[in-house]
Amino acid sequence: MNAQPLLNYINKQISLTEGEESFLISKVNHRKYLKGQYIVQQGDICKHECFIISGCTKTFYVDDSGQEHIVMFAIEDWWTSDMGSYITQTPADFNVQCLENTELIQFSYNDKEELYIEIPKLERFFRKIIEKALAASQKRIIKNFSLPAKERYLNFKELYPTIEQRIPQYMVASYLGITKEFLSKIKSQLILEQ
Amino acid sequence: MNAQPLLNYINKQISLTEGEESFLISKVNHRKYLKGQYIVQQGDICKHECFIISGCTKTFYVDDSGQEHIVMFAIEDWWTSDMGSYITQTPADFNVQCLENTELIQFSYNDKEELYIEIPKLERFFRKIIEKALAASQKRIIKNFSLPAKERYLNFKELYPTIEQRIPQYMVASYLGITKEFLSKIKSQLILEQ
DNA sequence: AAATAATGTTAATCTAGTTTAACATTTATT
DNA sequence: AATAAATGTTAAACTAGATTAACATTATTT
């Protein structure tokens, strides 16, 4: 199993002994998904939190009128799951689908809790990751409300500098909460401006 | 110090020994704020995470054009802070202001980390709280995008059933991301409908 | 009880973003 | 290379929600 990217990621913040590393690895699964496959489906219970080794995913929600709303993208070294479903083990609100062939490492709920008990500094490490994710999520809320679509698009390009090249534009529009037609208009305006 | 509401809140999920309870209490401050006072100000570094014993707060952000955007409210048994500022100890994006006289218990960053080291089950407890907050924040993002203002208002009333009576309506509008005039219109429509 | 400040309502006008629809371009499939 | 499928663009008509402004109601202060 190629767990090295995960270990590198963790060792940037804390240091694990060899024993801890192998215990960690014994508790996770390595998996490959093809482009288009679903990691989580709306209505299912989300069994895993996933660390992406390579590839790209989108997390989205289909509303009652059938419209798709993208909540986030994730690429190498990012985490993805439906947090609400994962922590309460209730049906997911979101879908997580692969936009490219994707290789990742899965943490099941129970194995992760065991890991935390065995290696407390891992619990600290994950707590801090979630704190950061919460702070980012709150910032996104205010940006959605206080900024017009053009500014949100510019922010998106800053936050996800490499992703825009990897995904179709209509998904960017969905992430921004606007139609693809309007994003097209914004982009042509931006070209005229400079 | 009246820490009983905090202990009750914690003991709903985990059980602390008397020694742990008194260690916990030795690490926190009890404080009272008057209506109108600020717990955190945009630009300052957020020093504490706060558990509310009584009262009510709003967390808001003032944008470049001077407009106020409310991110959340908090009442008895809820937590409040600027998470982004607190965890990174960098200037806050948000203000937290008391809408009523408010009594709360403050956790400083360093004392909280000490608590976690001394009482690991508290770290687990807080991790789970943050996971829930993150899940709620993600749900709010999709609801903002996928629902029209009228639905968001109905959702607000479900999420904060007691708060609507305690705060002025223009703050509800700010939380919903609409003007007070438009909320007024929505409310009169809802009255006509039933 | 007045007077003032804070909050809430209504209606007209305006605008950011949607919808629809037709067409253009790029990518994948045979 | 040809065709089909997926993605992107443009423009006209439309709508949810903003803005402005005048007025109504409710709290607060004197």
Short note summarizing the structure:
Chain A has helices spanning 4-11, 18-26, 83-88, 109-118, 120-146, 149-159, 169-176, 180-193; strands at 29-33, 38-40, 48-54, 56-62, 68-75, 79-80, 95-98, 102-108. By secondary structure, the first copy, chain A, is α+β, with helices and mostly antiparallel strands. The interface between A and B is large, with 36 and 36 residues.
Going by CATH, the homologous superfamily of the domain at 4-121 in chain A would be Jelly Rolls
Model regions low in confidence, pLDDT < 50 over at least 5 residues of chain A: none
Hey, roughly how much beta strand do the residues of chain A contain?
Answer: 15-25%
Order of helices and strands of chain A: HHEEEEEEHEEHHHHH
- Widest sheet, order of strands of chain A: 1-8-3-6
Biggest interface between protein chains, with counts per chain?
A-B, 36 and 36 residues
Shape of chain A: globular
Helix content of chain A: 40-55%
Question: How large is the radius of gyration of chain A?
Answer: 18 Å
Quaternary organisation of the protein chains: homodimer
Derived from helix and strand composition plus strand pairing, the structural class of chain A reads alpha+beta
Regarding CATH, which class of the domain at 4-121 in chain A? Mainly Beta
Assigned CATH architecture of the domain at 4-121 in chain A: Sandwich
- N-to-C terminal Cα separation of chain A, in Å? 48 Å
Q: Biggest β-sheet of chain A, characterized? A: 4 strands, antiparallel
